[in-house]
Amino acid sequence: MPTVLLQGQLFPSEIKQLKQEFLRYDFFDLNDLPIEELPAAARQSTEIYYGQQLPKDALEQLSALHWIHIPSPSLQGVPLDEIYRRGSLLLTNTLGSSVQQVAEYAMGGLLYFAKNISLWQGMKRDNKEKIWKSPHRESIWTLENKIFLQVGLARLGTEITKKANDWGMRIWGVQEKKTFHPHCQKTFSKDELQHVLPLSDIVSVCLPRRRKYHHWFKEEQFNLMKSGSILIVLGHGSAIDEAALVLAAETGKFRGIVIDAFEKAPLPSNSPLWNLPNTLISPEVAFLPYDTQKRTSFRLFRHNMRQFVRGNYTDMKNVISRLDET
């Protein structure tokens, strides 16, 4: 009997529903049982894996695996290179349930640098004279009338502009083609990006993981950005040329950089990004906490499993292809 391995926040009632609907599969709950302790027959017959974490050595034990579903937007917990090397593995994930959390994170990162929180944090409480005479007092931003440029106006980008609008900033948006957007005072096409970057106080980049968005931001774009601006990178990091960002940031150009998305996750310990000045780096946590009330991931997984067992792979949702990762 083919096997499904479940390692995630599924309720017992949801697992019961899966067992009742998909009778030809044997389901194993991995929350209390590591893959290594599964019977060899179960590992060898595993076709489907549902879970946030699948280390490379565990993947190697699942020779019959055909589909992996990640119950979150993040791909950090799976070995993408190994998955694509196999060539026959389907990979899907859950999107859409954490858009508000991402927007909140963007606003938190913006405030961190706008209000000089990183600079105040290092001051000693007993040095009152230094605090009152600090030049940081004069450089605190008010966000009213600052130009907030959102690059990417899909669901995540739209939610970010919605939050930013509440703070009195002037919201501009950039996407492939210039169209109306309900939360932007102005919108621009990709070809107009070079004209608006020098005018923007905050640049938030939140683009889908697609080949056509690969390195939208490289040396030319970073050089065009206003001196003393804030850069926020969320969603997926493939839109950013990290080597070019390092060169620009080392000049002290940016007031602050918030990075929660990388070309390759997790970010290697020897990455030069770790040493950049005025930079806040986090390991793809903007989506947290995941929305467990709507049960989005369970519903999506059940829909995709219905398609999978019928061989309707083109009808499966949120399929991530290798081209998306390039």
UniProtKB/TrEMBL annotation:
Keywords: NAD, Oxidoreductase
InterPro entries tied to this protein: D-isomer_DH_NAD-bd (IPR006140), NAD(P)-bd_dom_sf (IPR036291)
Superkingdom in the source lineage: Bacteria
Keyword Cell inner membrane: no
Pfam families tied to this protein: 2-Hacid_dh_C
D-isomer specific 2-hydroxyacid dehydrogenase NAD-binding domain boundaries: 123-285
Protein name in UniProt: D-2-hydroxyacid dehydrogenase
Species this chain originates from: Simkania negevensis
Organism classification: Bacteria, Pseudomonadati, Chlamydiota, Chlamydiia, Parachlamydiales
